[in-house]
Write a structure and sequence with these properties.
Distance between the termini: 74 Å
Largest sheet: none
Helix content: over 70%
Shape: elongated
DNA sequence: CTAGGGTTAG
């Protein structure tokens, strides 16, 4: 042996024990040094050491060294197979993990064990490889590993991920001793598959059976309390968190905070935040977003300042929420500030931020900027298209919306239900029958027509186009038992709009008979139908029905319909008294209804009162001046009529220009 | 060595 090499050699037993200790990513450089030492010591020929080195590299997440060494191994231990697969799953490469698994099976060089299956099953569920997952499940049954708790838990999780809740429940029911992990998977799985009630039921069963919950339990059950707005159970969980010492976990605290937010308990949420001494960016963002979704955008922006003052930087999620707040406040100034901030933070090319920016500019009525941001986004995702579409419709740029939708199809971007929810109102604005038939055919082809909200919007579109026949056809497609209050209201409004009062009223009673409880919107539609068709008695009795039987608190538009009804019947004083005695504040519409009636019945005294109110409440509407002039002319007061007409011209000059169109250039 | 968890646009 060469004496000079003595200091640089190392015994293979030493290597083995060192390698065993280097089993985490932060030992990568040590592993590399040891690797070099093994080579210079001539120990690489030892297959045992090579195997150890490969697995250590796998545990250090060094894919290329691990796989190079692993591929050359003459004999592979089960441990090394498993470690390779786990490395790939942990590195977010489940596909490669499955390739290793397939190689293992086909080469006949290894038999999967109870450690292999959970890794493989996890890879299947991450790839949504449902069929393969079932196959692996079958293999576990054949080999008897399906009785292993870890295997069962991973199977349960996989079935939940792919949406097979019944299969998951079956796995759970067959477990001899489900652990807290099994219960947690069941709870969060039901929640993620939108069975929130079931999630709560499982939780209470778990508590009844005396299974000790852990942090994950609380974090799994709290979102279910949130969507169900079940603050009672939420408070119980809160108490449990304090009692069992889970309060120290920031994730639990954030989940609790979000539960209060989702239940609309903003005061409690705020108190909770104020009482926390450790707050992370998620804590703040949860409350900021809470203010936004609970309609208090102003406080969201204020809270952002507070957060920054406490030294916490907003993240991508915070910015999207805050941009939404700016849209709600129609505050272009704040929105632009946030846009600039997002650019500085290099967040502006994140899809969620881009989408939020498009949406914010649209809500602030700046369609050009909205479109400009959209042009810079990646056009592959549906979300930015939806945002710019809904923005166009929001700003009444219906033609642009339809044009953009066609472009979207030309570029093979797949529309989803939000796309249609944004787009279809554009067709209602256009009121173009040919276009309506076009989109109708398209919806049939894509199978979107079975969706109730889509059908309801189509009813509205045909109604706006003046085609009651088509509207009714669409209405009839929906089976009676599936018809909801929205589609009923749409068809009632359609008939009402075109003066078919009797039909509207008849449909209203059909709806009641079908077991649907009319709401304030339905009553608005049917009352409007009555006033439009002059069905005075019918309208009054329906109004009575609304107050007495259905206990609907009337809004100003209900009163407007009644004023219109009474007015048409010549009962002008009754109408006037109703306005004066109703328990809510009047608006321009109700006085407009009275003014219209006064013109028909040539009542100057009340007409002047009504007109004065409309001028006050709606000074830019020239129609009211025209009505008053018409009234004066009808009773022969020509000079007064002339004077009012002159006022129209003055008002007309002050009128704002109509919305400008946005140029949709070729992309 | 293996299984379960929170905030996000339209």
């Amino acid at each position: 042996m060469n004496k000079g090499n003595r200091f640089f050699t190392i015994a293979s037993s030493q290597c083995e024990s060192l390698l065993r200790n280097f089993s985490a990513p932060n030992f990568l450089s040590e592993t590399k040094k040891l690797h070099a030492l093994i080579i210079t010591s001539g120990l690489l020929s030892s297959s045992q050491l090579c195997s150890n080195l490969a697995t250590t590299y796998a545990q250090c997440h060094h894919v290329s060294y691990a796989s190079q060494l692993f591929d050359k191994l003459p004999k592979r231990s089960l441990f090394s197979w498993n470690t390779m697969m786990r490395m790939y799953v942990q590195m977010g490469r489940p596909n490669d993990a499955l390739n290793v698994f397939v190689e293992m099976i086909h080469s006949g060089r290894g038999r999967p064990d109870n450690f292999t299956y959970p890794i493989v099953i996890k890879a299947c569920s991450e790839l949504l490889f449902f069929d393969m997952g079932i196959g692996v499940h079958g293999q576990t049954v054949k080999s008897g590993f399906d009785l292993d708790t870890f295997v069962q838990n991973s199977l349960l999780a996989m079935y939940m991920v792919v949406g097979e809740t019944e299969e998951a429940q079956l796995v759970f029911d067959l477990m001899v001793e489900p652990t807290v992990v099994s219960w947690n998977s069941l709870i969060s799985g039901y929640f993620r598959n939108s069975y929130a009630e079931e999630a709560l039921r499982v939780y209470s069963r778990m508590m009844d059976e005396g299974v000790g919950p852990d942090c994950a339990t609380l974090v799994s059950v709290l979102p279910a309390c949130g969507v169900l707005k079940n603050v009672e159970v939420g408070r119980e969980v809160h108490a449990l968190a304090l009692e069992r010492g889970f309060w120290g976990n920031v994730v639990v605290r954030n989940a609790l905070l979000d539960m209060y937010v989702k239940c609309g308990q903003m005061k409690e949420a705020r108190l909770l935040l104020n009482g926390m001494n450790e707050k992370d960016v998620v804590t703040w963002t949860t409350l900021i977003n809470g203010y936004v979704v609970n309609g208090d955008a102003k406080n969201a922006l204020i809270l952002c300042r507070t957060m920054q003052l406490e030294g916490v930087k907003p993240n991508l999620v915070s910015v999207t929420s805050l941009l939404s707040a700016c849209g709600d406040l129609v505050s272009l100034r704040h929105g632009k500030c946030l846009h600039a901030w997002a650019i500085r933070q290099n967040l502006e090319s994140e899809v969620v931020v881009e989408t939020a920016l498009v949406d914010m500019y649209a809500k602030c009525s700046d369609s050009s900027l909205s479109y400009k941001v959209f042009m810079k986004t990646s056009k592959k995702r549906t979300a930015p298209w939806n945002a710019v579409l809904s923005g166009f419709v929001h700003n009444k740029l219906a033609r642009n919306a339809v044009q953009l939708f066609k472009q979207m199809l030309a570029e093979n971007v797949r529309p989803d239900s939000p796309t249609l929810n944004s787009l279809l109102p554009a067709y209602a604005i256009l009121a173009d029958l040919k276009q309506a038939i076009n989109i109708h055919c398209y919806l049939i082809r894509l199978g979107f027509l079975c969706k109730l909200e889509v059908a309801s919007m189509l009813v509205d579109i045909y109604s706006k186009c003046g085609s009651l026949g088509y509207a009714h056809q669409v209405f009839d497609i929906i089976p009676p038992k599936d018809k909801d209050i929205i589609i009923w209201s749409a068809i009632i409004a359609a008939y009402g709009k075109h003066g078919h009062g009797e039909m509207a009223v008849s449909l209203f009673y059909q709806m009641v008979q079908s077991g649907e409880k009319p709401n304030e919107v339905t009553f608005t539609s049917v009352l409007h139908a009555c006033s439009h068709a002059g069905l005075v008695d019918e309208g009054l009795s329906l109004f009575n029905l609304m107050l007495k039987k259905y206990q609907v608190i009337p809004r100003v538009d209900h009163y407007t319909c009644i004023v219109d009804l009474l007015g048409r019947a010549g009962r002008l004083n009754d109408a006037y008294n109703l306005i004066r005695t109703m328990p809510i504040t009047h608006n321009h519409a109700i006085w407009g209804a009275l003014l219209g009636a006064c013109v028909i019945h040539e009542n100057v005294e009340l007409g002047e009162i009504a007109a004065r109110w409309t001028f006050e409440l709606e000074p830019e509407n020239t129609g009211n001046y025209v009505l008053l002039a018409k009234l004066y002319a009808a009773v022969g007061r020509w000079r007064d009529a002339e004077m009012v007409r002159d006022m129209v011209n003055e008002v007309g000059l002050r009128k704002l220009p109509a919305h400008s169109s946005v140029e949709v250039s070729n992309m």
